[in-house]
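Pasting as-is:
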Amino acid sequence: MFLKKEWKYHLVLALILLCLDILKIVNTSDVEIKKNFEPIFVGLRVTFIMTSTVIYFVNFKFVCPRFLKKNSLSQFFILIPFLVLLFAAIRFVLEEIIFFEITGLHNYYDETRRFWYYIIDNSYFALPPILYSTMVYLVLQLIEDKDLNKAELDLLKSQISPHFLFNTLNAFYVELLDDKPKVAKDILRLSELLRYVTYDSKQDFISLQSEVHFLKDYIHFFNKRFEKELSIQFLITGNIQNQRIPSLVLIHFVENLFKHGVVNDKNNPAQILLTITDKQLTLKTKNKILSSEKYMDSGIGTENIKRRLNAMFNTGYTMNSKTEKNYFTTYLKIPI
């Protein structure tokens, strides 16, 4: 949905600029109008639009997300001259090499094709697509932030019910603590699990220790459900210290394993392998697929995880999955 909104803004801007361009041509003399529609001028116009479009999307897709989202304004402004150079280079290739080979005509005269003059002249033409793409990016980010704020407000409104649930669970815990301490302990554990999902995990980043504790509680209750027939290999390699990772990312892969996988086959145990180093965390899962399931390795949950990781790490992470024979495996690597 957000992608569709994004393209709507690009198309609206393109139509506005096209209309302004047409009005500019119409308001000139008849001789100038005819000149603008001659094949040579149309060809040069096409190469100019192609160059502007490339710079527009390079800035929108790569420069703005990498630096404006992280508030690195100084680095963003440092990159603008490089975008200008890229604009000049692309235009030179299209007009002074390719177009010249086809028509035998240059757009710039010999004395104006000198390096500094060509760069300075093209800086004037390069700035509009850079400014337009930056403007559209900031507008879309503002809309997305408003949507997120609305979602957070809706979440606050919905927290009345969880609060009532926690009080009820706490009452059960107190009542059962003396007579049935094991049941009371599980109720406390369930309460902590629900509290983590409802409140603690709403931060963008959470401690790795809390996230792993949450995974262990999640697996514990499945162990209760399967009455100790659960066959899961949950292995952790490395030291868990003060590392912080995106909240509720790991559970996505573990939840899918329980939802779609065989988890009670002693001969084919499901695997959850967590490896922690100084700079990165990797999670690997492998499970036999239920014969009745058509396993989906994509969907709303997976796309949401990708969007979150893209926003946090850009391209600095790895996330993939594959189905091979009757087994489904996933792999995630993120910096910590």
